[in-house]
Amino acid sequence: MSLLRVKDLSVDYRRFRAVDQVTFSVASAETLGMVGESGSGKSTIARAVLRLVEPSAGEIWFDGQSVLPLVGTDLKKFRKRAQMIFQDPYSSLNPRRTVVQAILEPRHVHGLETQGWTEKLLQRVGLLAEHAVRFPHQFSGGQRQRIAIARALASEPDLIVADEAVSALDVSIQAQVLNLLAELQKDLGLAVLFISHDLAVIRQVCSRVAVMYLGQMVELGPAEEVCQRPRHPYTVNLVSSIPGSSRQVPPVPFSPKNSHGCVFAPRCWKADGVCWQERPPMKEMEQSHEVACHHAVSLEEVTSV
């Protein structure tokens, strides 16, 4: 059963549509990755799911309850169960508050027991009890992100939204934090919406992956299936950019004209008349593998990674 269901989600900023009719779900204890380049709408979706920005259209359901009408106490109860980890741990932590103040704040806000929780949370993320009295500037980037993770866990959530949670870290520290997130997800049965621009990271930690381009979802399926056998031309480009990939991609054209159909048409080597005029619907190619493309890449067209 899906813990989080999003249907036809759209988010507008003045005259600009940042997210356009996006549909997906996240099951309990599942990690869904969302990948795409900057400007693809990933972070906007993350914020809309938690009602940090208001959707312009669509539906969001959490544990069978519609999220969009929630206000006051009901919205507070939802946010207890759905927490976020931001990209920059230094900006997301108050520099004037100690670690113990930062990570226990959610428990105070939601009226939860605090006795003994500082040590429990710090131990859970691989830090020491003595770290509790220090300030954020006294930690490395990786340690600050562990503190941010501890704070997200403090309200005992069912869903974690991780928005580029490791992109600001060195590669070696990234691996440690990714291993920690995977361990927490498994041990606590968390549902995780993991946002990243790096498909290699998504492939490492996620069971399914949604590929975004200019506010629209273009491919959705099991992570290994999407990475090994990408069916959308944009996903082929993403997979080819993974270091060590042997995938060969046809020369990518570019047209300055606007497409009224597929958003990727100006950069697609397979685009023809219908691509410029009609938006392709999401359709299932193989079991649980969907793609929004009039001319999906065949398994024979491009050598597997």
CATH class of the largest domain: Alpha Beta
Tally of structural domains? 2
Separation of termini? Answer: 32 Å
Strands of the widest sheet, in order across it, are: 6-7-8-3-9-10-12-11
* Average predicted confidence as pLDDT: 90
CATH topology of the largest domain: the name is Rossmann fold
Helix/strand structural class: alpha/beta
User: Which percent range fits the helix content?
Assistant: 25-40%
At CATH level 2, the architecture of the largest domain is 3-Layer(aba) Sandwich
Commentary on this structure:
The chain is an alpha/beta fold. The protein folds into two domains: 2-210, Rossmann fold, CATH 3.40.50; 229-305, no CATH class. The chain is 32% helix and 24% strand. The protein has helices spanning 42-49, 72-81, 89-92, 99-109, 117-124, 141-153, 171-188, 199-205, 223-228, 233-240, 273-277, and strands at residues 2-13, 16-27, 31-35, 57-62, 65-66, 82-85, 159-163, 191-196, 208-213, 216-222, 282-286, 289-292. Strands 6-7-8-3-9-10-12-11 form an eight-stranded mixed β-sheet, with helices on both faces. Helix 4 (99-109) runs parallel beside helix 6 and helix 6 runs parallel beside helix 7. The longest helix has 18 residues, at 171-188. The two termini are 32 Å apart. The model has no long low-confidence stretch (mean pLDDT 90).
